Amino acid sequence: MNTVFFSNPDNQYLISNKLRELNAMDTDGEISFSKERDYLVMGALQLFLKHAAIWDERVQFNIQLIGETFIRELKTPVNEENLNLLFTSCFRFFMENHIFHKDNLFQLTEAIKQFAICRQDEFDERSSSQITYTLKEMPLTMIREILSSDNAKEGANKQVMSSQADSLIKISRIWADFFPANTSNQPI
Protein backbone atom coordinates (compact mmCIF):
# COMPACT_ATOMS: atom_id res chain seq x y z
CA MET A 1 0.00 0.00 0.00
CA ASN A 2 1.33 3.40 -0.99
CA THR A 3 1.78 6.21 1.48
CA VAL A 4 -0.34 9.23 0.56
CA PHE A 5 2.19 12.04 0.67
CA PHE A 6 1.96 14.52 -2.19
CA SER A 7 -1.83 14.07 -2.27
CA ASN A 8 -2.10 14.81 1.46
CA PRO A 9 -3.92 18.18 1.81
CA ASP A 10 -1.60 19.33 4.61
CA ASN A 11 1.47 18.63 2.47
CA GLN A 12 -0.12 20.28 -0.56
CA TYR A 13 -0.73 23.37 1.57
CA LEU A 14 2.95 23.46 2.57
CA ILE A 15 4.08 23.01 -1.03
CA SER A 16 1.75 25.81 -2.16
CA ASN A 17 3.05 28.10 0.57
CA LYS A 18 6.67 27.46 -0.40
CA LEU A 19 5.79 28.17 -4.03
CA ARG A 20 4.23 31.51 -3.03
CA GLU A 21 7.29 32.31 -0.93
CA LEU A 22 9.65 31.55 -3.83
CA ASN A 23 7.52 33.51 -6.31
CA ALA A 24 7.59 36.54 -4.02
CA MET A 25 11.38 36.63 -3.88
CA ASP A 26 13.05 39.62 -5.50
CA THR A 27 14.33 38.88 -8.98
CA ASP A 28 16.71 41.20 -10.79
CA GLY A 29 16.64 39.39 -14.11
CA GLU A 30 20.25 38.27 -13.82
CA ILE A 31 20.72 34.52 -14.28
CA SER A 32 22.66 33.00 -11.41
CA PHE A 33 23.11 29.68 -9.66
CA SER A 34 20.49 30.64 -7.04
CA LYS A 35 17.91 31.82 -9.55
CA GLU A 36 18.28 28.74 -11.72
CA ARG A 37 18.08 26.47 -8.66
CA ASP A 38 14.99 28.31 -7.40
CA TYR A 39 13.34 28.08 -10.82
CA LEU A 40 13.92 24.30 -10.88
CA VAL A 41 12.59 23.93 -7.31
CA MET A 42 9.46 25.89 -8.25
CA GLY A 43 8.95 23.69 -11.30
CA ALA A 44 9.34 20.56 -9.19
CA LEU A 45 6.92 21.80 -6.54
CA GLN A 46 4.36 22.68 -9.22
CA LEU A 47 4.61 19.15 -10.63
CA PHE A 48 4.26 17.65 -7.14
CA LEU A 49 0.97 19.54 -6.81
CA LYS A 50 -0.32 18.95 -10.34
CA HIS A 51 0.48 15.21 -10.44
CA ALA A 52 0.35 14.33 -6.74
CA ALA A 53 -1.14 10.85 -7.20
CA ILE A 54 1.53 9.89 -9.75
CA TRP A 55 4.32 11.02 -7.42
CA ASP A 56 2.69 9.15 -4.52
CA GLU A 57 2.71 5.99 -6.61
CA ARG A 58 6.18 6.32 -8.12
CA VAL A 59 8.50 7.60 -5.37
CA GLN A 60 7.60 5.55 -2.31
CA PHE A 61 11.24 4.79 -1.50
CA ASN A 62 12.14 8.45 -0.94
CA ILE A 63 8.77 9.28 0.60
CA GLN A 64 9.64 6.75 3.29
CA LEU A 65 13.26 7.90 3.63
CA ILE A 66 13.07 11.69 3.34
CA GLY A 67 9.36 12.56 3.48
CA GLU A 68 9.57 14.11 6.94
CA THR A 69 12.79 15.93 6.03
CA PHE A 70 11.12 17.35 2.91
CA ILE A 71 8.21 18.62 5.02
CA ARG A 72 10.66 20.30 7.43
CA GLU A 73 12.41 21.93 4.48
CA LEU A 74 9.07 23.26 3.23
CA LYS A 75 8.37 24.74 6.67
CA THR A 76 11.81 26.33 7.08
CA PRO A 77 12.15 29.99 6.04
CA VAL A 78 13.90 30.63 2.74
CA ASN A 79 17.69 30.87 2.89
CA GLU A 80 20.46 29.60 0.63
CA GLU A 81 21.25 26.45 2.61
CA ASN A 82 17.60 25.46 2.96
CA LEU A 83 16.93 26.06 -0.73
CA ASN A 84 19.94 23.90 -1.60
CA LEU A 85 18.58 21.12 0.60
CA LEU A 86 15.08 21.53 -0.82
CA PHE A 87 16.57 21.20 -4.31
CA THR A 88 18.38 17.99 -3.34
CA SER A 89 15.18 16.50 -1.94
CA CYS A 90 13.35 17.33 -5.17
CA PHE A 91 16.30 15.84 -7.08
CA ARG A 92 15.96 12.58 -5.15
CA PHE A 93 12.24 12.29 -5.95
CA PHE A 94 12.87 13.04 -9.63
CA MET A 95 15.76 10.57 -9.89
CA GLU A 96 13.76 7.77 -8.25
CA ASN A 97 11.02 8.32 -10.81
CA HIS A 98 13.59 8.54 -13.62
CA ILE A 99 15.30 5.28 -12.64
CA PHE A 100 12.18 3.14 -12.38
CA HIS A 101 9.93 4.51 -15.12
CA LYS A 102 10.75 4.41 -18.82
CA ASP A 103 8.40 7.21 -19.77
CA ASN A 104 9.63 10.77 -19.64
CA LEU A 105 6.44 12.08 -18.09
CA PHE A 106 8.21 14.97 -16.41
CA GLN A 107 10.43 16.87 -18.86
CA LEU A 108 11.91 18.85 -15.97
CA THR A 109 13.80 15.71 -14.90
CA GLU A 110 16.67 16.21 -17.33
CA ALA A 111 17.10 19.89 -16.38
CA ILE A 112 17.18 19.05 -12.66
CA LYS A 113 19.61 16.18 -13.23
CA GLN A 114 21.96 18.26 -15.39
CA PHE A 115 21.89 21.18 -12.95
CA ALA A 116 22.80 18.86 -10.07
CA ILE A 117 25.62 17.19 -12.00
CA CYS A 118 27.10 20.24 -13.72
CA ARG A 119 26.85 22.64 -10.78
CA GLN A 120 27.39 20.29 -7.84
CA ASP A 121 30.52 22.17 -6.79
CA GLU A 122 28.47 25.36 -6.30
CA PHE A 123 26.31 23.75 -3.60
CA ASP A 124 27.25 23.80 0.06
CA GLU A 125 29.02 20.68 1.35
CA ARG A 126 25.93 19.05 2.87
CA SER A 127 23.84 19.50 -0.28
CA SER A 128 26.71 18.39 -2.50
CA SER A 129 27.00 15.18 -0.50
CA GLN A 130 23.26 14.60 -1.01
CA ILE A 131 23.74 14.96 -4.76
CA THR A 132 26.60 12.44 -4.64
CA TYR A 133 24.40 10.06 -2.64
CA THR A 134 21.55 10.45 -5.13
CA LEU A 135 23.77 9.71 -8.11
CA LYS A 136 25.94 6.94 -6.67
CA GLU A 137 24.42 5.30 -3.59
CA MET A 138 20.66 5.78 -3.83
CA PRO A 139 20.20 3.50 -6.88
CA LEU A 140 22.10 0.72 -5.09
CA THR A 141 20.12 1.22 -1.90
CA MET A 142 16.86 1.09 -3.85
CA ILE A 143 17.89 -2.11 -5.61
CA ARG A 144 19.00 -3.69 -2.34
CA GLU A 145 15.59 -2.80 -0.86
CA ILE A 146 13.80 -4.35 -3.82
CA LEU A 147 15.85 -7.52 -3.75
CA SER A 148 15.35 -8.00 -0.02
CA SER A 149 11.59 -7.42 -0.21
CA ASP A 150 9.08 -10.21 0.32
CA ASN A 151 8.10 -10.05 -3.37
CA ALA A 152 11.67 -10.76 -4.44
CA LYS A 153 12.11 -13.53 -1.89
CA GLU A 154 8.90 -15.27 -2.94
CA GLY A 155 9.38 -14.67 -6.66
CA ALA A 156 6.02 -12.94 -6.81
CA ASN A 157 5.00 -10.41 -9.41
CA LYS A 158 7.43 -11.40 -12.16
CA GLN A 159 6.47 -8.41 -14.31
CA VAL A 160 7.58 -6.01 -11.58
CA MET A 161 10.80 -7.95 -11.10
CA SER A 162 11.45 -7.85 -14.86
CA SER A 163 10.84 -4.10 -14.91
CA GLN A 164 13.19 -3.66 -11.98
CA ALA A 165 15.84 -5.77 -13.72
CA ASP A 166 15.49 -3.48 -16.75
CA SER A 167 16.03 -0.57 -14.39
CA LEU A 168 19.26 -2.15 -13.15
CA ILE A 169 20.50 -2.30 -16.71
CA LYS A 170 19.50 1.34 -17.21
CA ILE A 171 21.34 2.32 -14.01
CA SER A 172 24.50 0.56 -15.16
CA ARG A 173 24.35 2.48 -18.46
CA ILE A 174 23.84 5.79 -16.66
CA TRP A 175 26.81 5.04 -14.40
CA ALA A 176 28.93 4.12 -17.41
CA ASP A 177 28.07 7.48 -19.01
CA PHE A 178 28.74 9.53 -15.88
CA PHE A 179 31.65 7.56 -14.47
CA PRO A 180 33.58 6.06 -17.42
CA ALA A 181 36.29 3.54 -16.66
CA ASN A 182 39.74 4.99 -16.28
CA THR A 183 41.73 3.25 -18.99
CA SER A 184 44.85 5.40 -18.74
CA ASN A 185 45.89 4.07 -15.31
CA GLN A 186 45.79 7.64 -14.01
CA PRO A 187 44.27 8.35 -10.59
CA ILE A 188 40.65 9.39 -10.90
Structure, explained:
With 188 residues, the protein is an all-alpha fold. The chain has one domain (9-178). Helix content is 73%, strand content 0%. The protein is globular and about 50 Å long.
Order of helices and strands: HHHHHHHHH
Count of domain modules: 1
Approximately how much helix is present in the residues? over 70%
Low-confidence stretches: 182-188
Instruction: Please tally the helical runs, counting DSSP H or I stretches of 4 or more residues.
Output: 9
What is the radius of gyration? 17 Å
- Identify the overall geometry: globular
Q: What is the number of E strands?
A: 0
Label the structural class: mainly alpha
Q: Termini distance?
A: 43 Å
The main β sheet shows up as: none
Key structural traits:
single chain, 188 residues, mainly alpha, 0% strand, disordered C terminus
Concise structural overview:
This protein is mainly α and 188 residues long. Helices cover 73% and strands 0% of the residues.
Write the layout of secondary structure elements.
Blueprint: H1 9-23, H2 33-50, H3 52-58, H4 60-75, H5 80-100, H6 108-118, H7 125-147, H8 150-154, H9 158-178
